[in-house]
Design a protein that fits this description.
The two termini are 20 Å apart. The longest helix has 30 residues. Helix 10 packs antiparallel against helix 11. With 363 residues, this protein is mainly α. It has 16 helices and no strands.
Length: 363
C-alpha cells in the first residue's frame, strides 16, 4: 500500500506518524469512556492517558517545524507553492470530516435548523478550525475528537514562514513577508490576550534544531544511530509522558529525542517497519476521522452501555475501533487525500511524500 516515494525514503518520521496517530486514537477512546460515563468531555486526570494525546500532538508540531524550516532555511522558497500545497494537503480531508459533523449534527437536532445568522457564525468557526456547535448541537466538537484546533496552529505556523525565512536568510520576500508580518503581529496580540498559547508555538521551533544540525554539523549525524542514543531517546519520551502536557519542561524533554529521530535513528529498527510506514502514510486520515467513528459507535449506535462499568471492560472494544478507523482511513486516503496529492508538483511529492508532508498531519 506504500506509495513509491514513501517506500523509497528511509526517514523514521514516516513510521513515527503512524504510532503518534494511533496514540491519539487511544487517548480519545479513553476520553470517550469518561465522557459517556460522566457527561463531561475533559482530558484524563492521570498524566499518562492525558499525554497519549499531548505528546503525539507535540511531536507532530515538531515534525511540521522540521520539514518546513528545512524548506526555507538557506534556500529560495516558493511561498505560493508552499501555501497551495498546504491547502491541497489539509483542506480536502478536513472538508470531508466536516460533512460528517454537519450530517450527524443535523441528525441529532432532528433537522430543525437554527437561524441563518447563527448557522453562519458556526460555519465560520469551523472554517477557522475553532469548531464548536453546529446547528446548535453542543457536542458537534466531539465528532472530530476536538483535533481540529491543532490545524489552526499549523496554519499559523505556515503563515509565519515568510517572516521566519526573512530572519534566518536575511532576505525580504515582498508581499509574502509583508502579509506574514501582519499575521505575526496578530499572533502576538492573540498571545497577549491568551488566545494563542506561546508554548505550542515553541514546539515548531524545536523542530528547527535537527535542520540546523544537518546543515552545520553533518558529521554528528553518524553518532545518532548508536544503540545508547536509542535508549536515551526512549527514556526521554517515557519521562515526557509523566510531565505536565505542553509545559516548557515537557517540550524541552521531547526536543532531544525528536532531534535524534529526525536525524535518522530508527529505534532499533522499529521505525524502519514497512507496516508502520503504511500506517504513517494514512496518519492524517487516522487523526481526523477517528472522532467520527467513536461518536457513531458509542453515541449513535450505542454499542456499549456505560452504566456501572469500568474502563477495563470498555478497553476490549479498542481493537475493533482501531481496525474500523484504519479501514476508513485507507478509504479516505485513497479517495479523498490522494487525488489532491496528485495535483501537486512532482518535486513537492518527492520531498514530502504523499503520506504526510502532513498535517499532523502535515509535513
Amino acid at each position: 500500500m506504500l506509495t513509491a516515494s514513501t517506500a523509497a525514503r528511509s526517514s523514521p518520521l514516516d513510521a513515527l506518524r503512524g504510532i503518534l496517530a494511533t496514540a491519539v486514537i487511544c487517548h480519545h477512546f479513553v476520553v470517550t469512556y469518561f465522557w459517556k460515563a460522566t457527561g463531561i468531555w475533559i482530558p484524563p486526570q492521570s498524566a499518562v492517558p492525558n499525554n497519549l494525546g499531548a505528546v503525539p500532538v507535540s511531536l507532530f508540531f515538531m515534525i511540521t517545524g522540521f520539514l518546513f524550516f528545512g524548506k526555507i532555511y538557506q534556500r529560495r522558497p516558493d511561498f505560493l507553492d508552499i501555501f497551495k500545497s498546504r491547502v491541497l494537503r489539509i483542506m480536502p480531508l478536513y472538508a470531508f470530516a466536516l460533512i460528517f459533523v454537519v450530517l450527524l449534527s443535523l441528525y441529532e437536532t432532528g433537522f430543525a435548523f437554527i437561524t441563518l445568522k447563527e448557522l453562519g457564525q458556526e460555519v465560520f468557526k469551523w472554517l477557522v478550525f475553532s469548531g464548536g456547535s453546529f446547528n446548535g448541537f453542543i457536542h458537534s466538537n466531539i465528532m472530530t475528537g476536538g483535533v481540529h484546533w491543532t490545524l489552526r496552529y499549523e496554519w499559523l505556523f505556515y503563515l509565519t514562514l515568510p517572516v521566519i525565512a526573512a530572519l534566518v536568510n536575511k532576505a525580504w520576500y515582498g508581499k509574502y513577508s509583508l502579509a506574514s508580518l501582519l499575521v505575526f503581529a496578530v499572533i502576538t496580540v492573540c498571545m497577549m490576550l491568551g488566545i494563542v498559547k506561546p508554548a505550542l508555538l515553541l514546539l515548531f521551533v524545536a523542530g528547527f534544531i535537527p535542520v540546523l544540525i544537518k546543515r552545520h554539523f553533518p558529521k554528528s549525524i553518524a553518532y545518532m544511530a548508536h544503540p545508547l542514543v536509542s535508549v536515551a531517546a526512549l527514556l526521554l519520551i517515557a519521562c515526557a509522558m509523566k510531565l505536565e502536557a505542553y509545559s516548557v519542561l515537557q517540550i524541552a524533554t521531547m526536543a532531544l529525542p525528536f532531534m535524534i529521530l529526525a536525524l535518522g535513528n530508527d529505534l532499533f529498527g522499529l521505525l524502519a517497519s514497512r507496516g508502520l510506514k503504511s500506517l504513517g502514510e494514512v496518519s492524517y486520515s487516522l487523526y481526523l476521522t477517528h472522532g467520527v467513528v467513536l461518536y457513531i459507535a458509542f453515541s449513535i449506535l450505542h454499542l456499549y452501555s456505560f452504566e456501572d462499568t469500568q474502563l477495563t471492560d470498555f478497553v476490549v472494544h479498542f481493537p475493533a475501533i482501531l481496525l474500523t478507523v484504519a479501514l476508513l482511513s485507507y478509504v479516505t486516503f485513497n479517495w479523498v487525500e490522494k487525488p489532491f496529492i496528485r495535483v501537486r508538483k512532482p518535486s513537492i511529492m518527492q520531498t514530502e511524500g504523499v503520506g504526510r508532508s502532513q498535517p499532523l498531519t502535515t509535513d
